[in-house]
Amino acid sequence: MRDKREALYQDWPGRKEQIDQLVHILGDANAPPVHEAVLVYGGAALGKTSVVRAVLESEKRPYAYASCLTCTTQSLLFETLLAGVRKGMKDATSVEKAKRCDRVSDFLEAIRKLAPKSGKTLYLVVDEADRLRGRSTGGSSTTREQILPVLARLLELAKINVCTIWISRLDPEQFRGNTIQQMPAPLLFPAYDDAALQKILVKERPAGAEVSKHAAFVQPMLGTFGKASRSIDELRTVTSALWP
Questions:
Q1: DSSP per-residue letters across 193-208
Q2: pLDDT tens sequence across 105-118
Q3: Which is nearest to 37 in space by CA: 185, 179, 180?
Q4: DSSP classification of residue 181
Q5: Phi, psi for 16 (deg, rounded to 5)
Q6: Angle, vertex CA 131, rays to CA 125 and CA 12, nearest 5
Q7: For a Cys-Cys bond, which of 46, 68, 135, 138 suits 131, CB 3.0-4.6 Å?
Q8: What strands, in cross-sheet order, belong to the sheet with 122-127?
Q9: CA dist., res. 141 & res. 102, Å (int)
């Protein structure tokens, strides 16, 4: 297990603390989740989604992923999550064929049938979760409710071991006021420091480039351009353009 953790540290420079915190927050995958929901937040291009998925895959935790950037309706979000569960599960309680999932009750019924027989916690990763703020579940005016509170209480509603992981650029305060009774456990991904930026850029060096030479090139480049931008994407572009 320690070797897997060390491999994650190497793959994701500057994210050791976040990896350790995430594993701690998720707890034992073979026991009921400590938290019903987790909010992973921070600015753009900070490794939030990649690290979350890498941790889940490294520890062989069953999960499904959906992005609210492309899942623009409730049914599409639910159906994408269910499709991900079907693809990755080998010990579901029953075989559930794909079908439309228009209502929350449809989703709850389907997710129960797809839950691991072993009782192992199932993780549902919802990217760009801030796009769900204020979005309702549809239905009549008497049954309509917002989607985020449903995801926050999924363990209680579905009565299976399930944890939802929300990924967002917005901090937890921006999610308050959405009738969420229990806020997700927060995990901040801060901006990369210079040491992390250098490790990332050197790790992604061009094929054939020597580590020492590329590191010697990156360090002063960060000293100049890192003052204007902390965006790893922008620094990648500058590094690529200036590398001889």
A1: -HHHHHHHHHHTPPTT
A2: 999 999 999 988 88
A3: 185
A4: S
A5: -60, -50
A6: 45
A7: 68
A8: 63-67, 122-127, 162-168, 37-41, 185-188
A9: 16
What are the pLDDT tens digits along the chain (244 aa)? 668 899 999 999 999 999 999 999 999 989 999 999 999 999 999 999 999 999 999 999 999 999 999 999 999 999 999 999 998 765 544 455 567 888 999 999 999 999 888 889 999 999 999 999 876 655 433 333 578 989 999 999 999 999 999 999 999 999 887 567 789 999 999 999 999 999 999 999 999 899 999 999 999 989 888 888 888 999 999 999 989 8
Q: How far is CA 35 from CA 27, 133, 189, in A?
A: 9, 20, 19
Asked whether the beta carbons of 127 and 49 are under 8 A apart, the reply is yes
Residue type, 176: R
Distance CA 176, CA 85 (A): 29
Quote the pTM value.
0.90
Q: Which of 20, 26, 8 is nearest to 164 (CA)?
A: 26
DSSP E strand boundaries for 18-101: 37-41, 63-67
Tokens 């992981």 sit on residue: 165
Strands 37-41 and 63-67: unpaired
Give yes or no for a contact between 20 and 12, defined as CB atoms under 8 angstroms apart: no
- The beta strand positions in 33-115, using DSSP E, are 37-41, 63-67
**Which candidate, 123, 118, 101, places its Cα nearest to that of 110?**
101
Distance separating alpha carbons of residues 64 and 140, to the nearest angstrom: 29
Q: Write out the two tokens for 55.
A: 């941790």
Asked whether 50 and 172 are in contact (CB, 8 A), the reply is no
